[in-house]
Structures are given as C-alpha cells and as structure tokens.
Amino acid sequence: MKNRLLQNLKTRRHKIQRRLVNQGADAMLVMDPINVTYLTGFTGDSSFLLLTRKNEIIISDTRYTTQIEEECGTIDKEIRTSKTTTIKLLCETISKLGISSLGIEAQQISKSTFDQLDKELVGVELISTSGIVEKFRAVKDSFELEEIRKSIDLAERSFRVIRESLRGEQTEAEIAHNLEHQIRLFGGDKCAFEPIVGVGSRSALPHAVKTSKKIEESPFVLIDWGAKAGLYMSDLTRVLITGKAPAKYEKIFNIVLEAQMRAIERIKPGVTAKEVDHAARGFIEKSGYGKKFGHGLGHGFGLQIHETPFMSSISEAILKPGMVLTVEPGIYLPNWGGVRIEDDILVTKDGHEVLTSVPKTFEESRVTLA
Prior knowledge:
By secondary structure, this protein is of the alpha+beta class. About 35% of the residues lie in helices and about 20% in strands. A 6-stranded mixed beta sheet has the order 4-3-2-1-5-6, with helices on both faces. The protein has a 3-stranded antiparallel beta sheet with strand order 7-10-11. It has a 3-stranded antiparallel beta sheet with strand order 8-9-12, with helices on one face. Strand 2 (about 50) and strand 3 form a beta hairpin. Helix 9 (about 245-265) packs antiparallel against helix 10. The longest helix has 23 residues, at about 140-165.
C-alpha cells in the first residue's frame, strides 16, 4: 500500500512537471498545504514544494525532517535551521537551480510574501497561477477512490448506530458529539466537518449550529455529516422522521428527493455542472419552491470537504470520469422546516455510480425513538 501510494504521488508530480513544459515555465512553487499533501503525502505545515522540470524538493524545517522521510519516500528536501527563514532558504534553492521563471499559486500567497520573493529573486519572473493543482485533484485516482469509499463506509456505519439508538431527550449537540465519537470508535480520524443537526424549524438553516434543542420537540430532524478516514472525507445528509410529520413536510420531502434523483441521472462525462444543477433546480422551481433553494447543487470533495468542481447554475465545469461529487438539493422554509438530501456520486467512464447507500425515501426515513 505504501509503495503504491508513493508511486501515485510521483505520478501526480509528473503531471505538474509536464504542465510546466507546456507553459514554458522553469518551476512551480506549491504553497497551499493541501496541495503539498496531494503531491507529496506530507501532512505537516509551514512547508513548500518546489517543482522544476527535473527536480522535486520540499522546503521545510527541522521539526519535520523525520516526518518527511516517513511520508514522502526519497523526495529531495531542503531543511532550514533556526539561523534562517523558510523564504530565504527557498530563494537560495531557486538561485542554485538557475530558475528564471517561477509559477506561484496566486490564491495562496500573501502580498507581503510575494513582495519579498520579488525583491530577493533578482532576474526571476514570478508568474501568477490559479487552480493548476486543484484541476488535477478534481479527478481522483484509484488510491483516492479507495480511501473515499472507506470514509463513506465509516460515515454510514456510524450514522446507522446513531439512528438505531435515537432517543427523544437527545439534543442536537449530543447527536453531533455521538457521531464524532462513533466515527472514532470505528477507526476514523474524526468527522469530516462539524456535523449539522437541525430539529424542526432549525432544519431550515442549511448550516445550522447545534443547540440544546431536543429530538422530541419536532417530528423531524436533519443531519448532515461525514467521516474523515486517513486523509479523505465523505459528505451525506438525511432527514429522519421521528413522529407524525405534517402532510406539507412529506410533500416537500418528496419534491427534494425527486429533484435529487433527476440530477443524479444527468451525471455522466461531458455534461456540464450547470446542466446537472438545472435538472434539480428546474424541478424545484416548477414545484413552486425555486426561491427556497438558494445554494448550489453540490461540490467535489476529497482531501477537503469542498473542492472543485462546484455544481451551480453558473458553473461551466465539465464532468470527467474520476470526479466525485455531492448532489444535495434542498428546500428551506424559514421558521418552519427544511429538507436536504445528499449523496456522494462518482462519475464513471459511461455514467455514474452512487457511492452512498443510506435509505432515503420518506417511509425509509421513519424512526421509532428508543
């Protein structure tokens, strides 16, 4: 497994190096910690990756010498001591390599750091880049897909335990804490993000902050959660029906479910993200609730819970095999209640695969409280 991962990491770096050749640049400086992890396996911080057409060098400090050797294999490294700074060591390395043009992640670098590099690197052209590594991250390799499947399995097994032990006196906060605990018991690192638990009217808050509101205070509760297994994450949402829900709530639930199924059916290579979004949004609009669905349909995920491509009515992103997406339409009626149903979908060579399997119809979502 370790050797396979190291080979995958090397393949990812080679893709960036080939991109440098195509763009005519001598080197690229990767500063985003997540992108450094994606390309090297290194999980520390305060470190950069310098890629030339032939060289692969991590710029770090003495805290991480052993960790880099353990996580990154034989990749070259420049380790600073307390007598210098990471930026100065970086500049010295760039000068020694004779680099004349350097691509920099514009979204990651601060103006002060850019100005410092511009001052120190005399004769080196600094080229602003955006989304180069993220574009490659959007399409998962076989190793990443295995890890994502593990994170989904953890999330689903943990949710099953929470669902089967649900009690009326439990609060939103208690359920969120129990989910995290259960994920850890099953071997996960933690939740992929702070779980969202919204009882009753609070389910109309797409990013509700957990409170002391109890399950028994309403006949429905929305739970949005995910697990982190190793470096990779998952993201799901379900509504549980814990009592006699109003007929209107069942109607809205079924509109959201139908919208989600229509969107999922549109997923295949070559389709744009906005086409998939429209499949769900258009149905919700025709059902009379268009103004109650304000967020995008979904997003990519992997090393981060929100990654490219983003699924929205204005997204021109084209779906490709290996992309993993959430599909999560919702209808939210302030001070009354909301419904969101979310699954994780893999774009395959000839269509899609639904990676999640938690029951989601209205009848399947009924729960008898313990």
